[in-house]
Amino acid sequence: MSLQPMLLVEVIIHKRLRDKMNRLIFLFSSAVVTLFFLGCGPKMMIPPNVDLRKYQSVGFIDFVCDNEGNLDDCVSERFLETLSGYQKDAHIIKLGNQEEVLKSVAAIQMDEKAIQAIGRKYNVSTIITGTVHVVEVKGIVELQPDLRTESGGIRPGTKRTDSGGIQAEGKRLKAIAKISISARLCETEHGTTLWTASESGQEEVKEVFMLPDGKVLFDASDYRFAYRDLVRPIIKTISTDFKIRKKRM
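Given the sequence above, the corresponding structure tokens read:
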């Protein structure tokens, strides 16, 4: 073959390769630009399944726990913080301890009549209540006893000695705990339930106290830290219906 046809073939091959590369570059650039504009496009707000902002006021009653100590305080604070974070414009009023709220309306249980009475007394159109049930606790590591509370008193499971000191009657443990949390939203005109959710979880807790009879107290000196890993994922799950979501248009 002469030199001229070979050069012609080489030119044609280079041209085809160049055209192919140009097409690939164009397609890649188009894809990048499309993804960029999709990623930067306007977002549409999707209302939550349960919108507290449509109610005049929401009364929040602290959760009740079937275990002595401060696990109920941890759950109540975390749930209220989560709701307030999801719906900043909602008018949520903290009413306090359930026993005290019921006592204020001369009731002994959270039934329809009690809910109606709470609505009238505290001027709230809805209330949120909840329960915490300790399913199981397994001690895994014994810790040094922490005998005093933050206020200087003595903890449950401890006693004062004849010499005026403090003596532990049980064991302070790091443990694996399983709990169940339930929450509900009720309207106060008729006392009916508008929404309810429950979830269980098992995780390590940094501090619990076990008495000689085997009874476990959730009475950590820093309960937000001690129960955080256990409580946080459960609260996140049961509060999903209150979350405002964003979707790109």
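DSSP finds six helices and eleven strands in the chain. Try to locate this feature in the token string yourself.
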